[in-house]
Amino acid sequence: MQVMHDKQDPNIGFLRIRTVWLFPENALGKFRNARHFLVPEMNFGQIAREIQQIANQPENADAGWVFYDTVLSNFAAANGARVISATQYHPQPDLWRNFDPQGQYAEIYNRYSHIQVLPAAGDSIEFIQEREDAMLLKIHPCNPAFQGAGVRFFVFHEPVEYACLEPVTSVPYPDTSFYIYRQKAGDALP
Length: 190
Known about the structure:
By secondary structure, this protein is an alpha/beta fold. Helices cover 15% and strands 27% of the residues. It has 5 helices and 10 strands, in the order E-E-H-E-H-E-H-H-E-E-E-H-E-E-E. It has helices spanning 46-55, 73-78, 93-97, 106-109, 145-148; strands at 2-5, 13-16, 64-67, 82-83, 114-118, 125-131, 134-139, 151-156, 165-171, 178-183. The radius of gyration is 18 Å and the shape is globular. The termini are far apart.
């Protein structure tokens, strides 16, 4: 990480971050009086544009998103998507009751947590506490719990084929691409 101030104007600073995870929040303390931040996106905004275009449609205003095995969840939340696989800053018992009706895993999700989602076979749902501030949710994309939670969009870093999902768009990148899917109406695991 590199923090610099413009020599000609002490009110202009520059923060260069060379990581996407974990964000060095303490570095922002050097800019306590900042009124504006400019955040250039090195990928020319392709994924941000796609997320905003979908999330900002009136019929998708309350639609939930899930990102499978990718670090883009918080990025999508910052671009207007309601993402359940992003960092959870405060407990959301109503949301997680859709996935854990008996409250069996409440001690795992009833906290601040970084949430990662991975596919599971069948209709099983598994909560795993990876660290004090990290939770892993293993769940099939067609699990009906997603419908109860209002999730309609799913993002993967490779093409997938699930009977309940239909492709919306893809965002190609040289190293890894992203594929956005929408849950088909009424389609879920039996």
